[in-house]
Write a structure and sequence with these properties.
single chain; rod-shaped
């Protein structure tokens, strides 16, 4: 599906150059030979790659966005092709490129928007970043300010961390901007802060100055290596928290097992007490039964004694009756003898 992009013509500065250059926004001719300029410092590609990586990993690069390093930005000025290749630049919207096409250069207003930000990184052997030569092939600052009219021009010295940011004013001139207390500058067009950070990255063992991005909340946009390190730290922290939870769970289990063992011991003691109480009750029951049996035997003995006593009483009464009869018989015999004696006399 073909995308359409509204290309806005550059706004002419209030303060006019004596001879206004004739600018034609045309693509680089196919037969144009780009200058093969060596990279002045090994830090330059590292700085550019680090800036881009942080934006990509933060998901801040749209499909129509162009970010490039040492890519030619070209135009035709007064009939001559002018080419400058910033160390890094950012274009919010560009026209789609056909599949398989390798782009050698970028022409603003023809292939997309004007770059919002261009950056140059200083080196010990190069000072052209400040050049305002107003004649062909033009100084870099003059080209960005007066011809391309790029809103933000960044010059960074990685050797000492000096950061200079210039913004195009209403008169079409660059004004150097004041950094905030953290040494950062907010770029509204990108909704990000740009600032300097000192440290190490990847295999670079030396501590150097880097350009870094921060969001509105002051959170630094991380590189891939930092994200990996952070994820590793988070993983380690999660593992430590998991280990701590497992240890707490083990301690809780051990306490629960100790409580269970204590409860079991108490239950066993209670069972033993119950068994002893049952034994005591059984002994008491046996003793009570024995007492009852002794009482029953005593009652039986008493009943037998009473029966014997009653029997003895009956025997005594019979003996008394027998004695009384004997006494009566003896008296009768005595009476009869007395009668006999009386009759014989």
């Amino acid at each position: 599906m073909t995308q359409t992009l509204e290309i806005k013509a550059p706004k002419a500065p209030t303060e006019q150059i004596k001879e206004e250059p004739q600018i034609i926004w045309e693509k680089l001719p196919e037969d144009f030979i780009l200058p093969d300029e060596p990279v002045e410092s090994i830090a330059q590609p590292l700085l550019a790659a680090a800036l881009t990586e942080a934006l990509v990993l933060a998901g801040l690069i749209a499909a129509e966005t162009l970010i490039a390093s040492n890519m030619a930005i070209c135009t035709n000025v007064n009939g001559k092709t002018v080419v400058k290749a910033p160390d890094w630049f950012y274009v919010p919207r560009v026209l789609p490129v056909a599949p398989g096409v390798i782009t050698r250069s970028y022409t603003p207003h023809t292939e997309g928007d004007l770059p919002t930000v261009v950056m140059e990184f200083l080196s010990a052997t190069e000072t052209g970043e400040y050049s305002v030569i107003p004649t062909y092939p033009y100084g870099k600052m003059w080209y960005y300010e007066r011809i391309l009219r790029i809103p933000i021009y960044v010059i960074f010295d990685p050797s000492d961390g000096t950061l200079e940011i210039r913004r195009l004013n209403s008169s079409g001139n660059y004004e150097i901007q004041t950094l905030d207390q953290q040494g950062r500058y907010f770029i509204p067009e990108m909704n990000l802060f740009l600032g300097v950070w000192q440290g190490k990255r990847l295999e670079n063992k030396n501590t150097i100055y880097w350009l870094r991005w921060w969001d509105r909340d002051g959170k630094m946009l991380l590189w891939g290596s930092e994200r990996i390190s952070l994820e590793h730290q988070q993983t380690q922290a999660e593992r430590q928290r998991a280990d701590a939870e497992r240890q707490r769970a083990d301690a809780e289990r051990q306490r629960a097992e100790a409580e269970s063992q204590k409860a079991e011991a108490q239950s066993q003691r209670a069972d033993a007490e119950s068994q002893r109480a049952d034994a005591e009750r059984q002994r008491a029951d046996a003793k009570q039964q024995k007492v009852e049996e002794e009482s029953q035997r005593a009652d039986a003995e008493r009943q037998r004694a009473e029966a014997e006593s009653q029997k003895a009483e009956v025997e005594r009464q019979r003996a008394d009756a027998e004695r009384q009869r004997a006494d009566a018989a003896e008296l009768e015999v005595a009476r009869l003898r007395s009668l006999l004696e009386q009759a014989g006399s």
